[in-house]
């Protein structure tokens, strides 16, 4: 008996652990009011781990707006479960204390709350395939990314530490910081927006207080891109203030006029 919508692929015994690989179809949500699962303790634990992992992945997918994603769950059940008796009550599941949700390695404390019950920690390592932005051709450093330079391909992102892009608009128009090979997944750190303010450039300083907006001329003390904080010298008062780059040659002051 297996979790609805889940197809078991392989079962291995490795170093005292049982590894069950499953391909997850449309995500299911755990039902806390469900009756106790039937079968051996191993199957009960396996089903509970699948339910919990599938629900966690589904929640993250909703938060990140993943479209058309697929996942495969690799469930590691310790061999000691062979000594456990089936639980007569619904199992409880929780993440170990201090653990944070990490899709590269999900861990669950699964407990049988019945008399003479048991508790065990199960690890689930999912492979999650999401359409992400990849380079259609080799992109050289310094070039701007155009619509024809990229395409969407499904890649396993569960262990991605450098990030990825799921919207082509997040790449188009940005500048390549480091050469990107064709078919390589594009990560945010490989791209940067264009400079809107250059060091020594005269800029428009916008200050707003109590609904009143004032504009003055200043000189940028460093380069800046959209959203960057830069130091700007007010050419009238000769005072240096902190401002946020807002547009081409435009900054917005963080302090009211007259403050240093």
TrEMBL record:
Instruction: Answer yes or no on keyword Transcription regulation.
Output: no
Q: Which domain of life is it from?
A: Bacteria
**One Pfam family matching this protein:** ChapFlgA_N
Please provide the record's keywords in A-Z order. Cell projection, Cilium, Flagellum, Periplasm, Signal
UniProt name for this protein: Flagella basal body P-ring formation protein FlgA
Provide the leader sequence positions. 1-30
Q: Where in the cell is it found?
A: Periplasm
Main localization category? periplasm
Endoplasmic reticulum among keywords: no
According to its UniProt entry, the function of this protein is described as:
Involved in the assembly process of the P-ring formation. It may associate with FlgF on the rod constituting a structure essential for the P-ring assembly or may act as a modulator protein for the P-ring assembly.
Organism of provenance: Rahnella laticis
NCBIfam families from the entry? Answer: flgA_cterm (TIGR03170)
> What is the similarity comment for this entry?
Belongs to the FlgA family.
Gene expressing this chain:
flgA
Limits of the SAF domain: 130-192
Which PANTHER family does the record cross-reference, listed alphabetically? FLAGELLA BASAL BODY P-RING FORMATION PROTEIN FLGA
Q: What InterPro entries does this protein map onto?
A: Flagellar_FlgA, FlgA_N, SAF, SAF_FlgA
């Amino acid at each position: 008996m297996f979790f609805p919508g889940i197809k078991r692929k392989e079962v291995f015994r490795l170093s005292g652990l049982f590894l069950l690989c499953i391909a997850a179809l449309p995500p299911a949500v755990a039902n806390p009011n469900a009756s106790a699962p039937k079968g051996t303790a191993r199957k009960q634990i396996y089903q509970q781990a699948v339910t919990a992992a599938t629900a966690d992945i589904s929640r993250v997918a909703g938060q990140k707006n993943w479209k058309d994603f697929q996942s495969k769950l690799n469930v590691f059940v310790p061999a000691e479960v062979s000594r456990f008796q089936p639980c007569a009550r619904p199992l409880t599941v929780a993440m170990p204390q201090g653990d944070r949700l990490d899709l590269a390695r999900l861990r669950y404390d699964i407990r049988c709350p019945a008399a003479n019950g048991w508790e065990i920690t199960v690890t689930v390592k999912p492979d999650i395939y999401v359409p992400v932005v990849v380079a259609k051709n080799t992109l050289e450093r310094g070039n701007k990314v155009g619509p024809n330079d990229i395409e969407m391909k499904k890649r396993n992102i569960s262990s991605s530490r450098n990030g990825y892009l799921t919207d082509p608009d997040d790449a188009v128009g940005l500048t390549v910081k480091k050469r990107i090979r064709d078919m390589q997944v594009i990560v945010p750190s490989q791209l940067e927006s264009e400079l809107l303010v250059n060091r020594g450039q005269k800029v428009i300083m916008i200050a707003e207080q109590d609904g009143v907006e004032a504009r003055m001329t200043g000189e940028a003390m460093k380069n800046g891109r959209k959203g960057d904080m830069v130091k700007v010298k007010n050419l009238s008062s000769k005072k240096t203030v902190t401002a946020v780059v807002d547009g081409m040659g435009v900054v917005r002051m963080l302090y009211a006029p007259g403050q240093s």
